[in-house]
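pls ignore typos typing on phone
iron/sulfur cluster + seq
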Amino acid sequence: MQKVPIWRQIQRENFTSISSLLDFLEIEEKSQIDADPRFVLNLPRRLAEKIQKNTLNDPILRQFVPLVDEKTVAPGFVMDPVGDKTFCKTGKILQKYRGRALILTTSACAMHCRFCFRQNFPYETQVTGFEEEIAFLEKDLTIEEVILSGGDPLSLSDQSITTLFARLDAISHIKRIRFHTRFPIGIPERINDSFLNLLKNCRKSIYFVIHCNHPLELDDEVIASLKKIQKLGIPVLSQSVLLKEVNDREGVLFELFQKMVNCGIVPYYLHQLDLVEGTQHFLVSDIRAHALIQYLQENLSGYAVPRLVREIAGRKSKTRICL
Ligand SMILES: *Cc1c(COP(=O)(O)O)cnc(C)c1O
Ligand code: SF4
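k done
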């Protein structure tokens, strides 16, 4: 019998019951909480432990706690704002941009972010494995890079990733494999020896992109886990989402990106919110977003300032926000 890896055991401890989370956080004022959300609560313990007690006004909590605000109907906020469904090439491949194809490897995540643009995505869960996807990639010689996304690709077992890597390794026109993951922020134990070994054994160039929104998310243990990946010569980049009352202040973003570059992590994108139904309370205006970037440009090294972008369905790339 295969031993259950430690990270899976840790994952089972995630908060998935709202009442236990509220008890743990000693939250008394519950009128703003949505006790029965469509997108269920899922929050790793170690993130919950960083949250201030007895307040809803916490930058980590705000990202994960279901609020009644999510029931607000606002014009322009829809189920699939980035048009993902129309770009599906197979059950699990999304291709919007030239040279790159994205595999929705799994619907599972280490945590559930309330602002997730894929929270309503109808994931293909009937077909296991990636036969159809591999067949598609083999045929399209223009694809140089495969992006492993989801959900979170690190929810897959090391065995599944190894099998997928072996298939990708055999396709000569594929040169790069990119991970898009938030897993290490919630469960840094995921970056274990077995995972590091499979990265080491891959012959393609690997890029590792983490999703991180607040400096509190990057603690010593998380940083140490990412350092192990960097030691393999794999670039670690970051994506962040600009979120009202989470990270929409000069000081918070300054600290976030300064911390990243101090750890050798390159800030890649700062995303404007995708307008998913029920996320209106996270929206920051473009004018404000631009002012924040201006501040960062004046106070950080050039490479520490991410590109401010938004996804517009139908465009050939992410769109930079310029005023
Ligand atoms: C964002 C995205 C990518 C990656 O775009 P880059 O600009 O190369 O980071 C690829 N495919 C899809 C479908 C995407 O949404
Ligand atoms: S980790 Fe990423 S894919 Fe998963 S819920 Fe959060 S934003 Fe969505």
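The chain has a mean pLDDT of 96. Residues 109, 111-113, 116, 118, 150-152, 182, 211 surround iron/sulfur cluster (ligand 2) (CB under 6 Å). more later
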